[in-house]
Amino acid sequence: MDEGEGMGVNGVSGGSPGDPLTTTTAVAVVDADGLITYWSQGAQDLLGYSAADVVRHPARALLRGRDPTAAMSRLRRSDRAGNAQVTVRHRAGHAVRLIVRVCPLLAADGRRDWLILGAGAPAGTPPETHAPGTARAGTKATGTVPIGTAAIRTTPTGADEGRPSPVVTRHTRRTLLSGQPQVTVAHTPPRHGRTGRLGRERTRPRSFFPLHDDAGRTLGICYAARDVTVQDPTRERLVLLNAASEHIGTTLDLDRTVHEFAEVAVPQLADFVAIDLLDVATAGKGPTTRSPGGPVTLRRAAHLSIRPDLPKVIAEVGEPIRYPPGSLQNRCLATGEPSREALGPGTPWLPDDPVRWTGINRFGVHTHLVLPLRARGVTMGVVTLLRWENPDPFTEDDQLLIEDLVARAAVCVDNARRFAREHQAALTLQTSLLPPNLPPHNAVEVAHRYLPADAESGVGGDWFDVIPLSSARVALVVGDVIGHGLHAAASMGRLRAAVQTLADLDQSPDELLAHVNDLVMRLSDEAEAAAEGPAAAGATCVYAIYDPIARTMVVARAGHPTPAVAHLTEPVEFPDIPAGPPLGLGGLPFESAEIPLEEGSVVALYTDGLIQASDQDVDVGIERLCFALAHPDRPLEEICDIMVRALLSDRPRDDVAFLVARTRVLSPDRVASWHVPADPSAVRVVRDDVNDRLSQWNLEELAFTTELIVSELVTNAIRHAHGPINLRLIHERTLICEVSDGGHTSPHLRRARSTDEGGRGLFLVAQLAQRWGTRYTGSGKTIWTEQPLPDEI
């Protein structure tokens, strides 16, 4: 058996009918006298001659050229297989250039026939004829040779000559015995080359088919193997694009996305790639759709090289980078068109960039390709690819492939950029809706946590708040709008604003929730009328007011979990607070309950996502919450951390917000109270008592303004209300003055005319006090004022 080396053939046609491999190859057999004894259908398709036209005719009659006889002699001179390029006359009269593979067939009588396989020479092939090679029997197609052939000449005994491989022997015998072609496919996994570039997965279909003479006798078996990988660049392109689509854009993180594109490009397509983005793109803002006209500053978003030290020569990731005015990068940004260019001493813009020129010259970069990173009509930056280890410059086919990859990457980068912008907008919205920093309060020490279920957007429908009230009191609020994301956050913002406004009116917890409920019902009706769905249906809320003087907390809840109270000497308690309906559903009225609290108690208000976060039932969540609050003397931040670890998983399924407050009390020596008789003469006595107390508190600087305030408020109560009348001074962060009476008529601030004898007292109070207001109780009303302390004036 004589086996030949592979032969570089592209675009071949013809071959043995019915054979999936050789239907693209022309096959002929020439005997020792130079006569054609076999002519395949593929040969007829390629050259136009039928078997009847050429069989038993000299092969040299088909050759064209100055000396066809000499060409045939050169092909037949060696007893080894070899390649050649020949020019053959087509039946229609025109010349056809062929690449042929010639394999000797040694018969039993010593005569030598020749197996010839041919295919059309690809465009651009140099018109030269290679002498027969020195291939040995049993060798395989290697390098760029996509087709390997072997001729197996049968002996009179039916045995074949040589020592073929076991696979070849097995299929040869099957073909010989059955008389039918045999086909098999071999796969070779990809391997990493010297530069780290991953090679191709090689696929070789192999065909075995019998060769017959005119009498139908079997001359031998022809074996052909074709490297499909090399022959099918379209398949390589699709494989690379498919790999890129799977690898690029796995997340919406901008930095990760550009790095994923760099990993696809190097080393498969280039030895170095850099992605430079405009600042507006990296900042998450929308870049203008107009292409920049002059030199611009970009920022290096990612780069990758087979030589890790090359990127450091030019720029680090995150650093600003500028290109010379005549560079391809600036031209690409200005025109929006890709460009490729050979790099060398004659490159006009390189002398203006000595740093980049030093790096390019040091590594021997010979060519580069620059493409705009553009998607949806927006130019976000440029992509630069360099080659030096790969000796081939970028071709037009390379550019088309890379343009496709960059276009796909640009969409992913734009998605990441848009997500970053929207995410920033969502975070800005959430920051504006939630209190950024809770102000300090004398009444309570607080800590909190906010953990939205939608970790990517960072927004949700839960909220918390700490609202200062009159008379040194404080309101603690936790609410929950069912749902996640921006819609729930917007609804939450409305409810939080409503609660703050109503809290400023000093309403009781049950009254406040009733008003918020009316608001939610109205918003839901408006949203349903606009076909947007309910705006805040299913919201829940708990509202508590703590009084550090009375040492009590008044709580009302609307479909919300009961607060937990951790006492210093008793187990954690869940007070029995009447459960009102969720906000927006109407139904039963809301009720409040008063809870006595000792100093140092810890109160936890939370959304249901906290106790329902685990896969266990709510009772398990309650037990874990009791465990977290078991030591109320711990720092509040530590208690919050324990609550997160004990009750929450890594990714909670629902939004979670909770507020933890440690109660404080106001010392009795900071509070002074007087009962005021309903007699105008009592005003003078009260003023003297107030002055004495201010002296005890070292607040003499406030004596004059406080006398005026007390005189006006007490006089109004005596004249326009009814008893009992009480006066209270509270020395806290401010000086608080309260006058309570049994009336329910609210005083109105008005500007008195020049002819009026009165009506200026309340206006004077408003000018002297920092804040003032009225709150109503079950027995009447209280008018209060606040004045800043002397060291704060």
Q: Could you name the key traits of this structure?
A:
793 residues, alpha+beta, 6-stranded antiparallel beta sheet
Strand content is: 25-35%
Mean pLDDT rating: 78
Largest sheet entry: 6 strands, antiparallel
Helix content: 25-40%
Cα gyration radius (Å): 46 Å
Tally of DSSP β-strands? 31
Strand order of the largest sheet: 13-12-11-16-15-14
Task: Figure out the total of helices.
Answer: 20
Give the CA-based shape.
elongated
Extract low-pLDDT stretches.
Answer: 1-23, 128-146, 155-162, 284-293, 754-758
Return the structural class: alpha+beta
Separation, N- and C-terminal Cα atoms: 110 Å
Question: Please, could you describe this protein's structure?
Answer:
The structure is a single chain. This protein has 793 residues and is an alpha+beta fold. The chain is built from 20 helices and 31 strands. A six-stranded antiparallel sheet has the order 13-12-11-16-15-14, with helices on both faces. Strands 18, 19, 20, 21, 23 and 24 form a six-stranded mixed sheet that branches. Strand 18 (460-468) and strand 19 form a beta hairpin. Helix 7 (254-265) packs antiparallel against helix 12 (396-433), helix 12 packs parallel to helix 13 and helix 16 (618-628) packs antiparallel against helix 17 (636-647). The N and C termini lie far apart (110 Å). Residues 1-23, 128-146, 155-162, 284-293 and 754-758 have low confidence and may be disordered.
